[in-house]
Write a structure and sequence with these properties.
Elements (H helix, E strand, L loop, with lengths): L2 H8 L2 E11 L1 H29 L6 H27 L3 E10 L3
Helix pairs in contact: 2-3
């Protein structure tokens, strides 16, 4: 194995700049709501897959996460609406940090 490959395998954390820049309220709504909705749908699909495998399975942890995301979505929309009313642009800096699970 090459040294470069070994170094990449040894790395346990990676950061990805997902969103960065200034946005109008409409653009920010589109970007943020799209990301949150995608994550909500991901959890809903997980919940459905678990249920299909066993109708008695517990999915409370997914239900809680979906509710948390719905609340975050509402908070983001309220913040954007205030900025929209004031005619302000929004700066978004979204960095994902990925780590090797231990």
């Amino acid at each position: 194995m090459e040294t470069k490959e070994k170094t990449q395998l040894a790395k346990t954390t990676q950061k990805i700049q997902l969103v960065k820049g200034e946005f109008t309220a409409s653009e920010a709504t589109h970007v943020l709501m799209g990301l949150i909705d995608e994550k909500i749908n991901f959890h809903k699909i997980q919940r459905l897959q678990i249920w299909e495998g066993n109708h008695g399975s517990k999915t409370a942890h997914l239900d809680v996460r979906i509710q948390e995301l719905e609340m975050e979505k509402k908070k983001a929309q309220e913040f954007i609406n205030i900025s929209r009313g004031l005619g302000q642009k929004l700066s978004i800096n979204g960095v994902l940090e990925i780590s090797v699970a231990i």
